[in-house]
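Q: I'm a student working through a structural biology exercise. My instructor gave each of us a protein and asked us to get a predicted structure, then write a short paragraph describing it. Mine is CAZy families GH13|CBM34|CBM20 protein. I'm not confident about reading structure output yet, so if you can add a plain explanation after the tokens, that would really help. Here is the sequence I was given:
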Amino acid sequence: MSTPSDPIELTAEVTTALTTFRVRVPEETPPDDVVYIAGDNADVFGAAWDPAYTPMTNMGDGIWEWQVELLDGQVLQYKYARGSWDRVEQWGTISGMANRRVQILRLEDGTALVDNTSTEWASDAADETLAIQAWRDPLVASTVPAADSTGAVDAV
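A: Happy to help. First, here is the predicted structure for CAZy families GH13|CBM34|CBM20 protein. I'll explain a few features afterward.
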């Protein structure tokens, strides 16, 4: 039997990352609407799966952001909405109960970026990594009559 070795003390270090979620919304998104992020973890999103709880910041030019301190390696599911499940992103594979999924990867500067701004929808990239292509609710893209339309127009 050998003699006991010197005791070893280990301290586990929790590594976090200041994480920015960044998304591009469709051009037709009403300018007065607020974009929210809803997700599976109430400790992260403030409430679990509430489409009107965690507002994002409008950065202009169709870009919205939200920042939160997260654990390095943490896995989350989330969706973008405009205050209700009737006004949630719905397109491609992000439809119905399907969600976006991300694993947080801390960079050397202590930050992480979840970048959902690419509009390369025809690429091989997973839909969960791309910009929102469409909302569930139909949006009016234009109110200009077609060039060949006829009929009376009421002036307001």
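A: Here are two points you could use in your paragraph. Residues 20 and 67 are 4 Å apart (CA to CA). Residues 42-45 form the longest helix (4 residues). It's a good idea to check both against the output above yourself.
Q: Great, thank you!
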